Amino acid sequence: MSVSVINPLSVRCRIRHLVSASLLLGLSGCGLFGHEKAPPVPKLASAETLYNNGIDALRTRRYTLAAAEFEVLQQNYPYSGYVANAQLMEGYSYYLKGKYPEAVQQLNRFIGLHPTSADAAYAYYLRALCFYEQIADVQRDQQGTVESMDALEEVITRFPQSKYARDAQLKIDLCRDHLAGKEMLVGRYYQQERNYEAAINRYQRVVEDFQTTNHVPEALERMVEVYLDLGLTDQARKSGIVLGYNYPGSKWYRFAYSNLKRYKLLSDNFPVPGKLITAPKAPAATTTPPTAAGAAPAPSALGQQPGAAQPMDIQKAPVAPVKAEPAPPDQARVL
């Protein structure tokens, strides 16, 4: 009976061939079934064609292609009258795609090169929206909220009469409410951990720095709770009185009123919960207040007259300005 001897060298060679074939099949599978698509590469054409192609891509929601079209235009036609518009529209494309850092970078580029452009107000506003869209929930760090407020305030400071100023103010109010919510979250944590001094500091900051937010009534009520736990009855009564006179119908005043009543700290100074406090009427003026000679009446906030159009939806970005004609020659600069 003959016994065949297996050559170890031939076995190793076969294993190597099998491994190589598997790797090749895997690589080909990545190319055939992979989910990552190569970014679109626009064909080189005239500046006008590239710009119109970018606008068409925007309208059909192909934002990556739109940004690429505008970028190719800027690289190949730096002296074209379409360059300024292409820079702005590329930033808008990145914004719609959700690539906010890229959008901010492109908008900063536009603002630096065209600070006096008719579209500068929109560029500042769109840049602020990029920060605004990245605001994290109150459980996380709020540095993005601060950056958003700074960018929105710059819109109001630079362009107080623009159509973006009022919406910027609305978003600033929402940012302030967000920051106040963060302070309340931290304050409640400190209160639960019986770190009363730290809790009071957080609640006082809400009352002093975020007076127009919806968190002030709760902050005052929490201060009543903490002061009662510390045995500081005078401070508890003062916080309760402030809460009652400013928010008599709030549920937080009902809670504070009940706690103070349990400690027998109520007095005639405390309004009844739910009862509105009305200030005495001032005597009617018989004459018009004097004004400076030749001075025009003071405009209302942000230059809007009573009964003017309602502010835009705070969740919806306005449509970017799209011009059919190229930008003026003085706006076409070398990149």
TrEMBL record:
InterPro entries associated with the record: BamD, BamD-like, TPR-like_helical_dom_sf, TPR_rpt
Segments of this protein annotated with the region Disordered: 281-335
Keyword vocabulary terms for this entry: Cell outer membrane, Membrane, Signal, TPR repeat
Subcellular location: Cell outer membrane
Main subcellular localisation: membrane
Subunit organization: Part of the Bam complex.
Protein known as: Outer membrane protein assembly factor BamD
The species this protein was found in: Acetobacter senegalensis
This protein's encoding gene: bamD
